[in-house]
Amino acid sequence: MLRNDALGPIFEATVQSVEEAIVNAMVAAEDMTGFQGHKVTALPHAALREILKKYNRIQ
After folding, report:
1. Which of 1, 20, 30, 39 has the fewest Cβ atoms nearer than 10 Å?
2. How many domains does the chain have?
3. What backbone phi and psi angles, to 5 degrees, belong to 48?
4. pTM (predicted TM-score)
5. Nearest-angstrom CA–CA distance, 22 and 4
6. Are 29 and 42 spatial neighbours (Cβ–Cβ below 8 Å)?
7. Residue 33 is part of which domain span?
């Protein structure tokens, strides 16, 4: 059992791992066609990098 004041690093690690998983999913995404022919285009990697830079998520 951990004290409440010892949980901060665990919560921070959780946030960082979820953020990394989301970015990995966006990078791995490919164009696809779904139900009734709806098309979704993958986010271009260069655009994703610019967005991440804008919000100081990468250097």
Report:
1. 1
2. 1
3. -60, -45
4. 0.68
5. 27
6. yes
7. 4-54
